[in-house]
Amino acid sequence: MxxxxxxxxxxxxDFLRGLPALVPQVRVVVVSGSAVTGGHDDHSDLDVQVWCxxxxxxxxxxxxxxxxxxFDVDHVWRVAAGAWPTATQGFVHLQPDAADLSRPTRxxxxxxxxxxxxxxxxxxxxxxxxxxxxxxxxxxxxHDPEEPMAEQRRRAVEQAxxxxxxGAWLVQRAIARDDLAEATWFHMRFAVEPLVMLLRVRxxxxxxxxxxxxxxxxxxxxxxxxxxxxxxxxxxxxRARAAFAWQDEVLAELGVAPVSGRSAE
Length: 265
Description:
2 domains; two-stranded parallel sheet; 9 helices
């Protein structure tokens, strides 16, 4: 059971528990996201995952019709078809202007997918879900297969090492040309984001592909603040050099050397 305060979503939790009776193809309903991984606060959305029999779009449309009947919906962003192989996703805004943080947020991320042959959640990556409906015990809490994940990490680290010198050149060239927008983009893409990936491989390999989210919970104390000090600022050239130097440090800890075999200045 989650320790997060979900009381402002009590009406939705009740709705979700009753959803399978109204949309019979629904088989499993869980709450995931920050409600179960930590960090849920007054401005968190409610992450809902549903698995169903048959095409997900049919269950999504049926569920959303019920949502519009029962809730005061401001609008829904339905994620473009094809974003997921078999799933359908929408963000249900239960109040206008979600960016107005003067009051608690009411927003639901509704994700519906077809029941796979084997339905699993890796709790290392996604936390232990709050199960609202699973009478047949379809959901299994188990680690994702290690071999493909290890191969993904190996390739990501290999690319970071191979790209390191090219990335540093792209960033510094854009700075020298006073192309601030280009320099900022290259800095994030080639300096900061690969650095965070490497740190994740080093310290939380199961979540190596989670990007810049959850740094304070996934990385050692102080690492998130150190990364934030490298984000674009007035001294971008120095920040870039520091980011690439840190990349070299982590690559060395992982037993990998940049292609040039040299460290940053």
